[in-house]
Design brief:
Length: 735
């Protein structure tokens, strides 16, 4: 009986436990069904995420154009090729992997820069999938389409293409620090995020990042448990919004010409730093601005040489180009008489001695001759005559010690301590004050205009990609501290001074053209001693022209060049930039005036597209137009080219074409460094340079095959081989 009773109690207990457990489960399921969540997790959302797929639709970053609509920075779609070698994602009816490696290798080798044998070696490796290095990366739409069509015709599987956006700078070294860079930032894991976008990291790309950046769209759709699209269910699509466009004031043709000039001087005279800028004197538009060191924005070659934009971020003592402004202030204050004589050579002032650059002077000379000879003594006398406080007011009014407000990041203010009497008078000849090139250009605009100062600017307009509405950037003008009459007298005196015998700016005259120019030679401070160096200088020139009503201002600086037979002192190195630049500007102006058109009517020839043409068709067209060209490869179809289609093309510019199949190296003799880099860009071959100048020797013979990862050495040599240093006749001009 006890046994039966125990069994009965146990059964009753088990029944109660079962009912209790069932009750708990019922309550739990009820809670899940009613609330749709478990342990704080939304189950409906989890199911939605499980069967819902989102595909990002990438927005294009806005395009940066020059003043005439020529592209400077554009978004481009490129593709990476991947081969699937495993069959674990395939079905019998739907193969996803390589089934015929030899046939696929033949097609691929005919379209990219790899031999058939090399492609086959890739396709037979014991891995799940394989990429093809640089040869299979950054492929054009035309190349991808050609491969796809041929694979589909022969029913071959296993090759897929990953699409990606990249920022393309089709002109290479082209105002690179000013235009800037846009890159995918962050680590590799971040780059796989679908919403990742290009971000401006330098120059105007950074300053106008918000304006240029678009907004990605997306497609939302449902898939079943096997990953197949469910066609009966609606999908949601949100279109991307592309970024807005930016039009610069830069003139593509003039900028390219300036870059070429600086390349040559860099190769021949290897200065530590160079800047050259041309602005429209009336509205402040920067027409061209270049520097060295610079970098190729496409290949990023030399980018680590300097991240500093010398136009706005580099501060230095300007030297005697400051005398243009001192002269103007002295004329305005009525203390400059061109016919008044004074004793040159040296002057004791405020507890120190200021000397002319030749130290002994030229005896008693007129003030106009003092301007011609760039006499420090004269300008100290002028600062004392107008008064230190008055001169400080002029320096402030010209904009020194403050930012110009140009649309570039990290602009520096410069410094002007103006703390003790000797330093105060020294600022009159450009010593004891630090400036940036853009500050000097802003101040010179007062001399060009008289009644106002114009702010240097780089932006012409912006364009909304959605509405196509344009926003124009108007010139910003400030009141000038000098009158129009004073400005014209300053220009006339500078121009007349250039005609005086032994004038330091005599080498900057232009026959038949009126120019007001002033040179400068500024000593650099020795970092070890803290004193002015006797061997390190920044040479410069400022030119305003035509003198009767200046349209252009040109400002050039060259720091610590070496000397050659054709440039034996600093000013001659500056002239190697100055003369070809001024000649080109004058040619532009005369062309405009002769045909009655305005600058805004000018358009440049664009590069034709040779993609998908046969090599014989492309060569025939190039010869017909007398265009320089070079062919890379032995294939029959053109698959890539530089310059890119629809970008500006000059008559003397070389077009480089690459065919399908394995690439062969051309004869690089007499090629420039930039042209050789285009070969590297097209083929993925690493090229090492030795020396500066133009190609005289290459380690791989003409016609030899090139493959990505291969290293080629190219030796460069300059036409001028002069070495050593010579002292400048202006060497101590600012002491």
């Amino acid at each position: 009986m006890n046994s039966d009773k125990n069994r009965h109690n146990f059964s009753a207990l088990l029944l109660v436990f079962t009912i209790f457990s069932f009750g708990l489960m019922f309550l739990r399921f009820s809670q899940i069904m009613v609330r749709g969540e478990i342990n704080g997790e939304d189950l409906d959302g989890k199911v939605e995420r499980l069967y819902t797929r989102n595909q990002t639709l990438q927005a294009n970053r806005g395009t940066i154009f020059d003043r005439f609509g020529n592209p400077i920075a554009i978004d481009a779609t490129s593709y990476k090729m991947v081969a699937v070698l495993t069959d674990k994602w395939s079905t019998e009816k739907n193969p996803q992997h390589i089934t015929d490696a030899e046939a696929v290798a033949k097609i691929i080798s005919q379209n990219i820069n790899l031999s058939e044998e090399k492609v086959l070696e890739y396709l037979t490796r014991d891995v799940d999938q394989i990429e093809f290095g640089s040869a299979g990366n950054n492929l054009s739409y035309q190349t991808v389409s050609s491969i796809k069509e041929e694979l589909e015709e022969k029913n071959l599987s296993g090759v897929i293409f990953e699409e990606k956006q990249k920022r393309l700078y089709p002109n290479g070294t082209f105002a690179s620090h000013t235009v800037g860079l846009a890159q995918y930032t962050g680590n590799d894991k971040d780059e796989k995020t679908e919403d990742k976008q290009l971000e401006g990291v330098m120059g105007l790309e950074a300053s106008f990042n918000d304006l240029l950046t678009g907004k990605n769209g997306k497609i939302t759709y449902k898939k079943d448990s096997l990953g197949y699209l469910i066609p009966s269910l609606e999908h949601e699509e949100i279109d991307p919004i592309n970024g807005n466009n930016l039009y610069l004031t830069l003139d593509y043709k003039l900028q390219t010409h300036l870059e070429t000039i600086l390349d040559r001087v860099q190769q021949e005279n290897t200065p530590k730093r160079m800047t050259a800028t041309v602005i429209d004197a009336k509205n402040g538009e920067i027409l061209a601005s270049a520097q060295r060191p610079s970098f190729n924005a496409t290949t990023l070659e030399n980018i680590d040489a300097s991240w500093q934009n010398l136009l706005t971020e580099y501060t230095y003592e300007p030297g005697s180009t400051m005398k243009i402004l001192t002269l103007a202030a002295a004329i305005e204050e009525g203390v400059f008489d061109p016919n008044q004589y004074y004793e040159s050579g040296a002057i004791k002032v405020h507890g120190g001695t200021v000397r002319d650059y030749n130290r002994t002077g030229w005896g008693w000379i007129s003030s106009l001759e003092g301007v011609a000879r760039s006499s420090n003594v004269l300008f100290v006398r002028l600062v004392d005559a107008m008064g230190h406080d008055v001169w400080k007011e002029y320096l402030d009014a010209f904009g020194f010690g403050e930012k110009t407000g140009i649309n570039l990041p990290n602009e520096q203010t410069g410094t002007n301590p103006y703390a003790w009497p000797l330093q105060k008078v020294n600022t009159g000849f450009g010593q004891g004050i630090s400036v940036t090139p853009v500050q000097m250009l802003k101040a010179f605009s007062a001399i060009a205009n008289g009644e106002n100062i114009v702010q240097p600017r780089l932006i012409a307009k912006t364009e909304d990609n959605t509405t196509e509405e344009e926003t124009l950037y108007e010139p910003k003008k400030l009141e000038s501290p000098i009158s129009k009459e004073t400005a014209q007298l300053t220009l006339d005196y500078l121009s007349k001074a250039m005609d005086i015998e032994n004038a330091v700016a005599k080498g900057y005259k232009k026959e038949g053209y009126s120019i007001a120019a002033k040179t400068g030679t500024a000593q650099l401070v020795d970092s070890e001693t803290g004193a002015y160096s006797s061997s390190k200088y920044i040479y410069s020139v400022a030119a305003l022209f035509p003198t009767e009503d200046p349209k252009y201002i040109v400002y050039i600086t060259v720091q610590e060049p070496t000397y050659t037979e054709d440039a034996s002192y600093g000013s001659e190195v500056v002239q190697k930039i100055y003369h070809p630049l001024i000649d080109r500007i004058i040619d532009f102006k005369e062309d405009i005036e002769s045909d009655g058109s305005s600058e805004n009517d000018l358009q440049y020839v664009t590069t034709p597209s040779y993609l998908d043409l046969t090599s014989s068709e492309a060569i025939k067209d190039l010869k017909k137009s007398n265009q320089q060209y070079s062919l890379i490869g032995t294939g029959e179809e053109i698959v890539q080219q530089i310059p890119y289609p629809d970008t500006p093309l000059f008559d003397d510019q070389q077009i480089i074409l690459m065919t399908n199949g394995a690439a062969t190296i051309p004869d690089l003799t007499n090629w420039s460094r930039n042209d050789v880099l285009k070969v590297s860009e097209l083929t993925g071959v690493d090229i090492t340079f030795e020396g500066e100048g133009y190609v005289v020797e290459q380690s791989l013979e003409e016609g030899s095959y090139m493959e990505p990862g291969m290293e080629i050495t190219v030796k460069l040599s300059s036409e001028s081989n002069g070495e050593g240093e010579a002292s400048s006749p202006e060497a101590n001009e600012n002491e």
